[in-house]
Amino acid sequence: MRTKIFVCVALLVVVALALGACAAPTAAPAAKKKVGLVTDVGGVNDKSFNQSAWEGTQKAAKEFGFDTKFIESKQPTDYEKNIDQFATEKYDVIITVGFLMGDATAAKAKQYPNIKFAIIDNAYFPTKGVAYCDDTKKDCYVDGGLTNVTSLMFQEDQVGFLAGVLAGGMTKTGTVCTVSGMEIPPVVRFVVGFQNGAKWIKSDAKALNVYIPSFTDPAKGKETGQSMISQGCDVVFGVGGNTGNGGLLAAKEKGLMAIGVDVDQYLTYPEVKDALISSAAKNVDIAVYNYLKSVSDGSSKAGVFTANLQNGGVGLAPFHDWDSKIPQAVKDKIKAASDGLKSGSIQTGYKP
Prior knowledge:
Layout: H1 2-22, E1 34-38, H2 49-64, E2 67-71, H3 78-88, E3 93-97, H4 102-111, E4 116-120, E5 131-133, E6 140-142, E7 149-154, H5 156-170, E8 175-180, H6 185-201, E9 206-211, H7 218-230, E10 235-239, H8 241-253, E11 257-262, H9 265-268, E12 276-282, H10 284-297, E13 303-307, E14 314-316, H11 328-343
Parallel strand pairs: 1-2, 1-3, 3-4, 4-7, 7-13, 8-9, 8-10, 10-11, 11-12
Antiparallel strand pairs: 5-6, 12-14
């Protein structure tokens, strides 16, 4: 009897071992995609553009399981080597922040065709473009055909126009101004929209502007803001990263009104929040997040994707502490301008 029991147990053990041997091996977990972000010279804590891009990257990392890292560019000559660093570390996606990184992004996207690139504020088309050469003029190609580059663009002139309507409606002196960074297309779009928006609500409004060839010079921005304030400006729009932030500070110290840029600077630049009547926000974080979502689900495409009032990609930030101080008539004008821009019955005046 004991022999039969032993045989039965032995058979069960053999069967169990056999089943284990036939079972499919446990699959190794899929490697996380690696996403790198290269900032422009403003740095990742610029209270504005680069910071917003990184926040969008972090949100996507949390939701979709990416490994993420940023590298700060201290000067324009860092752009290509920072992209190279991510490429040599086998990153799957590289996001470059800003118009000024256009040439570096085009060059490296061509060099690394298996890496997905996204650039903010510089439009590349997958089928056509203009000739580009490296510094030696020996390696030339066409930006068109960059089938691994997605351009994340914004209609800054639309939200700039709304900021101008707000400024024109709130000014007591009839003079508003912009402390601007480098004279590049996204900054120019903000400025032109702002000036025309101010004149749309107040036909005799005076709109001053100074372009400063840097995004990292708050001292110069403050000095420029003070100069325009001395000329009667009582609403200062800072349009230039940390340089523009200096203009906001000038307004704050004089007890005047200010308008932030790119993000809701009431939340990111608390030192000037008392002066901020709003910010002309570009939802860079949302644009970056949506792009990385498309990478995650496999639907990302090369080409240009534009954020505007129509799709909620740009817009004025809340009025916060100033909400009760802004007359309803001004709020109504802002809504009318927004509706007109969406329908096309109002034009910002910006011409590429």
